[in-house]
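Let's see one such:

===
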Amino acid sequence: MDLDPDIRTYLDQMAAEGASPVYEVPVEETRRVVEARAPLMFGPVEDVAAVRELGVPGPAGAIRTRVYTPVASPPLPTLVYFHGGGWVTGSLDTHDGVCRALANRTPCLVVSVDYRMAPEHRFPAAADDAWAVTAWSADHIRELGGDPSRLAVGGDSAGGNLAAVVALRARHAGAPRLRLQLLIYPVTDHDFRAPSYERNATGYALTRDAMRWYWDQYVPVVAHRNNPDASPLRAGDLRGLAPAAVLTCEYDPLLDEGASYACRLTEAGVPTSHRHYAGLIHGVVRMPRITPRAWELIDDSARALREAFQTSVRR
């Protein structure tokens, strides 16, 4: 399918601005740009019943966490959400609109996690923080107004990577029992030779060179990237994992690794849905102001969560 025309206009505008690649500017500048662009790409955010911030105990101190409560009667299902940004950029604020929309459309509590980022904090810091907040949420879910039997994890891009990692850790630990792992164009591997990396190496916002740089910041030791806590696709056994909803986009270097993970989950007997979005690019879930098709991913994610929360607990 041809590239979405609104996305094409956006990419042409970005090219005309002549912004430098992430690997050619200081990390602080890249983060500043990402923060400044986020509200311009998402547009107006939705109201929710309540928003509060917590400091959740983590392996290196308190982890800043934001809890979104929709207008709905407790106890509510709960989604622990990890923002994207290559483990280097992104924040609670860049994904505020996404979390509000998911809270309202599911409806559910959304616990958004401000995990430690690279290069200041390298692998496995982000994964450890993601796991710490998920475990804490399971233990304190009643205090948040949540239902202990209905907990899910999710995220986009690097956040999808962290959600997949948390699901692997939960299976290994035997708890918490997750209803769903919501993986929005997730990072699951470090194979830059995959066909989708070749097809979409440049020209679609996220580039192959940028992904190489993100991996270098988060997991600089290449051998460590084979660890399933970094590359979930490299896990030897995916049996017994939480059900999954995997979303992939056509013009995305990460398309193949997301699709491959969905396929492996299915082969392992894990209930898995895979939705593919023709004509769209990586990062689109944060772009409702750029293209109305961004709402397709948000609405489909909320639908997957509703279905998972309505099903019987797996035995």
Summary: Strands lie at 50-58, 61-69, 76-82, 109-113, 146-156, 180-184, 244-251, 272-281. The radius of gyration is 18 Å. The chain is about 40% helix and 20% strand.
